[in-house]
Amino acid sequence: MKIHIVSNKQEISRMAADLIQNLIKEKPDAILGLATGSTVIGTYEELICRYQKGSIDFSEVRTFNLDEYYGLESTHPQSYHMFIRTRLFDHINVRPENIHIPSGTPDNVEKYCRFYEQRIDNLGGIDLQLLGIGVNGHIGFNEPAGELQPDTHLVRLSEETIKANARFFDSEKEVPKQAITMGVQTIFKAKKVLLLATGKEKAPIIERLAVSGITTDIPASLLKLHPHVTIIVDKEAGSLLPDDMLSFSERGVRE
Ligand code: F6R
User: Fold this and answer.
1) What pLDDT, in 10s, does the model give residues 112-125?
2) Residue 67, ligand 1, Cβ within 6 A
3) For atom 8 of ligand 1, which residue has the closest CA?
């Protein structure tokens, strides 16, 4: 597993936006798998900027978000619906009918999860899945566990994730305890995967990911089996990596 290390967040955002822009150029109706959270904000800002300059057209692009907190209405300020709308969709020309975000309040969870999964498959599958990584190695909300669920499902969030995400809520108590998330197989079925990590709090998990085998204790380690994964980290997130695991980006450096 090669990990590209670049100098800072801006560089990661530019590289991620380059990959997305190139994909849309090649395939204007590409299907993007989208993440929420702090890591991807810079990428979305860069994409908005390129859209405003006329370099990217999202009019045919289809999107599927990874996850949503269970129990939160789409209008809740901390919902991932709200996040992706205010951070990306409100500023680009993606068509509302081409946007898919898991509902946090489905009537029938199992039926809804099956529907979400089938919708991805019926449209031909995700071309590029953008991912962040949790401090515990989760991707989407697939938390470390003895067994991982393949498909979209309802999951209980780990204490670590609840703590890490409390920063977005008024208090830790308000963080929902469950979420609807794509499963590891849903993510794995994407033709290409792009995982980003920034900041020193991600350094220990990036080091564990780099040196570990494939284990459900680190859900992101399953990506070692995927044929087209790109991992880009900034120098803080990459600060604990052993030298032989690094691939220096042309534009990046490790100090
Ligand atoms: C969000 C998601 C999560 C985040 C991860 C990192 O849709 O699926 O896996 O990518 O928790 O979050 P940040 O970027 O806030 O550190």
Assistant:
1) 999 999 999 999 99
2) yes
3) 140
